[in-house]
Amino acid sequence: QLQASGGGLAQAGGSLTLSCTASVPPSAPSFSRYRMAWFRQAPGKEREFVVSITRSGGSTYHDSVKGRFTTSRDNAKNTVMMQMNDLKAEDTAVYYCAAGSTVISSAASYAGAYAYWGQGTQVTVSS
Length: 127
Prior knowledge:
Blueprint: E1 2-5, E2 8-11, E3 16-22, E4 35-41, E5 48-53, E6 59-61, E7 69-74, E8 79-84, E9 93-100, E10 116-117, E11 121-126
């Protein structure tokens, strides 16, 4: 189970930090075995890849957020975080965290590659 938090209202140019915490049952692979990702979905649009984070913390960003968003993971706390700076109106969306234990690099930007999803957290940026 994934729980996303940290969304809210920000002004353009402002910052927000999102967190995603995983509840991993004892029978499942440990959190460190999962590739994590953030996707977002704006009203009337398809879900869009934002960033993927490898087991060791390496990140691949969508071009639209490069240089503005930064991710990190703390495997001891089963948590990934995404620092969003220089927010723009077009960043307004519901943000979802996702996890997959069998995601290969070439598929990391595809929503279908991830088996587990959080409930989403709303980010609204006012211009």
